Amino acid sequence: MFRLGKYQFESFKYRPGHRANYAVLTEPGSREWGLKYSPTYSYFNEYDVLKKFSHPQIPKRHDAGREELFENDKLVLKEHFIVLEHFEGEDIVEYYKQKGMPDSHEIESLIKYILSVTEPLQYLHKKGYVHTDIKPGHLILDPSTGVIGLIDLELSIKSGELIKGVTIEYASPEQKHMNSLLKDVFDRKGEKAVLKQVNIDGRADLYSIGLILYQVLTGKIRSETSQSPIEINTAIPQRLNKIVMSLLEEDQSNRIPSAEILKEELASV
After folding, report:
1. Same domain, 51 and 123
2. Is-contact 148 92, C-beta < 8 A?
């Protein structure tokens, strides 16, 4: 049994590429709350940004801080933590790795899943925020309901702000460009110069959705091939193929412009 401050849990998950360990709380008798913790990374920014949102597919916040972690009453070390609403489900890419490349019937289900994630994205973007770190582990699919939860908003920014970090594998071209420019910036003047060159808005999140859709539909990473999805998986409808390729436009001005438009496009497949 583990205890972090007043919170108890039986076990935790650790996945490479994520900043935190994650556990479902066993006290005070409810499993509706989850706990992320890290010895080095503070969650006060995520705790602060979550108070601005109220959407059923974005986790509610409960608590954050820094406390001692014990395993069977033996002190391990101090950990930063955040307690938030637990979404039961699976990483969408891992889910399809187990099921295999989707056929025409499963593609119908996949479209419904992605339609569900346009809802919190539309909400977030209308609030003037960008998630900026959409990747498979941050889209939690509950197959029993077909609903995807959008989690880990710790790197979220207001549209037009500087990014706070980047997951290169699922980042948009403009995020990669800004990240590259920021490596040589050491003051506010340099930051302002970067913002004049690169603008990050909701279209960055849509590019990441395109990368995930491509990976699920084909079983391949987009950066490893120049093929369109339909060239790899012939079960993909032409219209869906066009949507994916539009999401993956390098120039953000040519990309599907909003989660609302993406929702309309998917609904027409």
Report:
1. no
2. yes
Residue 189: C-alpha distances to residues 76, 141, 163, 199, 241 (Å): 43, 42, 16, 16, 42
Could you report the per-residue pLDDT of 200-224, keeping only the tens digit for each? Answer: 999 999 999 999 999 999 999 999 9
Average pLDDT, the chain: 93
Per-residue pLDDT of 139-149, as tens digits, reads 999 999 999 99
The pTM assigned to this predicted structure is: 0.93
Could you tell me the residue range of the domain that residue 64 belongs to? 2-85
Question: Do both 32 and 68 map to the same domain?
Answer: yes
* Residue of 223, 230, 114, 94 whose CA lies nearest to 171: 223
* b/e sequence 61-97, b meaning 16+ C-beta within 10 Å: bbebeeeebbeeeeeeeebbbbbbbbbebbbbbebbe
- Of 58, 85, 112, at which residue does a domain stop? 85
Q: Which two tokens stand for residue 30?
A: 């409810």
CA 107 to chain centre: 21
Q: Which of 98, 117, 107, 220 is nearest to 169 (CA)?
A: 220
